[in-house]
From TrEMBL:
Keyword line: Hydrolase, Signal
Protein name: Glycoside hydrolase family 5 protein
GO biological process annotation, one example: glucosylceramide catabolic process
Native source species: Hypocrea virens (strain Gv29-8 / FGSC 10586) (Gliocladium virens)
PANTHER family the record matches: GLUCOSYLCERAMIDASE, LYSOSOMAL ACID GLUCOSYLCERAMIDASE
Signal peptide positions (record): 1-21
Residue ranges constituting the Endo-beta-1,6-galactanase-like domain according to the UniProt record: 23-265
Pfam family of the protein (one): Glyco_hydro_30C
Length: 462
C-alpha cells in the first residue's frame, strides 16, 4: 500500500505516545441518524459572480467544492427564493390576495440556475430552495425588507386579505419554474431567521411559531395538489436555542405530519443537543459573523472562529451531540472577499484557494455520502470526539476530532471484515486531507491522532 512507502521516508512524522492504544469499536448494527449531506449557498448574487468568473478559475472552484474524489464532494445546495421586486417571480401585487397572480421568470434567478446546473452535473441531488420573505405586499408591513408577518397567519389580518394560499402558490410556482429548466428542487423552506431583524429580505414569526403553524398545512396541501415531490423545512432560526423552542411548538401543534426537516442556523447558538423531534435536523446555515475574523488558511492557532479546527469541532459536536443529518456552510465561492471567513473558497492570488474551514468540511463531506447512517462507537480518547458512519455502499467512515493538545493512539477494530482495505487521511497544521500511514494488525488498525487534528478513516470491504 502506498502509505507504507510514505512512512518509510518519514513524510508523516507523528509524535506517537508510548502509551498503549485505546480500543475503538464500531457497531454497524446500531443505526443512528441518517445523513443527508453537506452543503453551502451562493445566494445574494454570489451565484452570478461565480458564473461570471473566468472559465478556468470557475472550473477549479467547482472541482474544489463538488468533486467527490479530489474536492469536498458537497452534496446539498441552498438557493434563496428572491423576494426583492427586481428579482421576484411575482414583482407586482395583484391587489387583493384573492386576485390572479402575474408570475414572471427570467430563466436566470440571479445565476442560481447556472449554479444549480453545475451542482447537478457533479451529482448533487439535494436542492434546497428557501424564501427569506414573502413579497412585501403579502406582509403586514408592506415591505419585504423590514420586519413584518404574513397576512392571514394567526394574529395578523390585512385589508388586502389572507395571503397564505397566495404565498404557497408563489413558492410552488418557483419550484415549477425550476422544473421548466430541468431542475428538481427537493426541499422547500419559507423562512430565514424569522427571529432576527435584518436590513434585507426578512419575515418574522412569533416565539410560539404561531404564524408558521397556521401556514404549513396550506403549503403542504398546495404541494400535494400539484403532485410535487418536495420535502418541507422549518424554520431556519438564527440559532439552535431558538429553533429548539420553535420545534417544541411545532411538534405540539402536530406539524410533523407536514414537515420533513427541522432546520436551524448557528449564529446565536450552536447545535449542541438533540431537538425534541423525530424529524431529521439540518444545520442549514453556518458562518463566521465578525468582520475581525478574515478568511484564513491557518488550521489552528488560538481557536479563533475563522480557524478550520474550530469548525472541525463544530461539525463533530453537531453530528454527535445534536444528531444532525446535514450541515451547510453559508457561501461557497467568492472572489476577493477575504475580509470575511463566511465562504469556503476565494481567489486571493491567481487561483481559487480553500480556507482552512473548507478542509474541516472536506474531512467529512468527501467521505460520508448522502444516505449514510451514523453508527455507534465504543471506546473514548481524551479530548477527542469519535464519530462513525456507514455509507450505502457499506464502507465505514470513522472520524476522530482531537481538540486536545496531545497526540492519541486508537486501535480501531475493522468493522467490515478482515479482508477490508483501510485508508487514513489527516488534516492538522501541516497537512490538508493528506493520505497517511497507519499500522495494520490482523483485525484492527492502529491510528495516531495528532493534537488539534482531524483523522478520517475509511474501511472498504472487498
Ligand atoms: C405581468 O407582468 C409583466 C411584467 O412582469 C407585465 O409586462 C405584464 O403587462 C403583466 N401582465 C398583466 C396582465 O398585468
Ligand atoms: C426558549 O423558551 C424558554 C421557555 O419559554 C425561554 O425561557 C427561553 O428564553 C427561550 N429561548 C430562546 C432562545 O428563545
Ligand atoms: C486579503 O488578501 C490580500 C491579498 O492576498 C492581502 O494582501 C490582505 O492582507 C488580505 N486581507 C485580510 C484581511 O486577510
Ligand atoms: C490546549 O492549549 C491551549 C493553549 O495553551 C489551551 O488554551 C487549551 O485549553 C488547551 N486545550 C486542552 C484541551 O487542554
Amino acid at each position: 500500500m502506498k502509505a507504507f512507502a510514505l512512512a518509510a521516508v518519514g513524510l508523516v512524522a507523528l509524535t506517537v505516545p508510548t502509551t498503549s492504544a485505546t480500543s475503538i469499536k464500531i457497531n454497524t448494527n446500531s443505526k443512528l441518524q441518517r445523513i443527508d449531506g453537506f452543503g453551502f449557498s451562493q445566494a445574494f448574487g454570489r451565484a452570478s459572480q461565480f458564473q461570471a468568473a473566468e472559465p478556468e478559475m470557475r472550473k477549479k472552484a467547482l472541482d474544489l467544492l463538488f468533486d467527490t474524489k479530489t474536492g469536498a464532494g458537497f452534496s446539498i445546495i441552498r438557493n434563496w427564493i428572491p423576494s426583492t421586486t427586481a428579482l421576484s417571480i411575482e414583482p407586482n401585487s395583484p391587489g387583493l390576495a384573492s386576485n390572479k397572480p402575474n408570475y414572471t421568470w427570467d430563466g436566470d434567478d440571479e445565476g442560481q440556475i447556472w449554479f444549480t446546473k453545475q451542482a447537478v452535473s457533479y451529482g448533487v441531488k439535494t436542492i434546497y430552495a428557501d424564501a427569506w420573505s414573502a413579497p412585501g405586499y403579502m406582509k403586514t408591513n408592506g415591505d419585504e425588507a423590514t420586519p413584518g408577518y404574513l397576512c392571514g397567519s394567526t394574529g395578523h389580518t390585512c385589508s388586502t386579505g389572507d395571503w397564505r394560499q397566495a404565498f404557497a402558490n408563489y413558492l410552488v410556482q418557483y419550484v415549477k419554474f425550476y422544473k421548466q429548466e430541468g431542475l428538481d428542487i427537493t426541499h422547500l423552506g419559507f423562512l430565514n431567521e424569522p427571529d432576527y431583524i435584518a436590513s434585507y429580505s426578512q419575515m418574522q414569526i412569533s416565539p410560539s411559531a404561531q404564524e408558521a403553524i397556521s401556514f404549513i398545512p396550506t403549503l403542504y396541501e398546495t404541494v400535494k395538489r400539484e403532485h410535487l415531490d418536495l420535502r418541507l423545512t422549518c424554520c431556519d432560526a438564527t440559532g439552535w436555542d431558538t429553533q429548539a423552542n420553535y420545534t417544541n411548538y411545532l411538534m405540539a401543534a402536530g406539524m410533523q405530519k407536514y414537515l420533513d426537516i427541522i432546520s436551524s442556523h448557528m449564529y446565536s447558538s450552536d447545535a449542541t443537543f438533540p431537538l425534541k423531534t423525530n424529524l431529521p435536523t439540518w444545520l442549514t446555515e453556518a458562518g463566521v459573523e465578525t468582520s475581525s475574523a478574515p478568511f484564513t488558511t491557518t488550521w489552528y492557532d488560538d481557536g479563533a472562529l475563522n480557524e478550520g479546527m474550530t469548525w472541525a469541532s463544530k461539525l463533530a459536536t453537531g453530528f454527535v451531540d445534536a444528531g444532525l443529518s446535514a450541515y451547510l456552510f453559508w457561501e461557497g465561492f467568492e472572489i476577493s472577499q477575504n475580509q470575511s471567513a463566511s465562504h469556503l473558497v476565494d481567489v486571493l492570488g491567481q487561483d481559487p484557494e480553500p480556507s482552512s474551514i473548507y478542509y474541516a468540511f472536506t474531512m467529512w463531506s468527501r467521505f460520508i455520502r448522502p444516505g449514510a447512517n451514523r453508527v455507534a462507537v465504543s471506546g473514548a480518547l481524551p479530548n477527542v470526539i469519535t464519530a462513525a458512519f456507514q455509507n450505502t455502499d457499506k464502507s465505514v467512515i470513522v472520524i476522530f476530532t482531537n481538540s486536545g493538545n496531545s497526540s492519541q493512539l486508537a486501535d480501531v477494530a475493522i468493522p467490515t471484515g478482515k479482508k477490508s482495505s483501510a485508508q487514513v487521511w489527516l488534516t492538522d497544521n501541516n497537512h490538508r486531507v493528506h493520505e497517511t500511514n497507519f499500522k495494520r494488525q490482523s483485525s484492527s488498525i492502529e491510528v495516531a491522532v495528532p493534537p488539534n487534528s482531524v483523522v478520517t478513516v475509511k474501511f472498504t470491504s472487498r
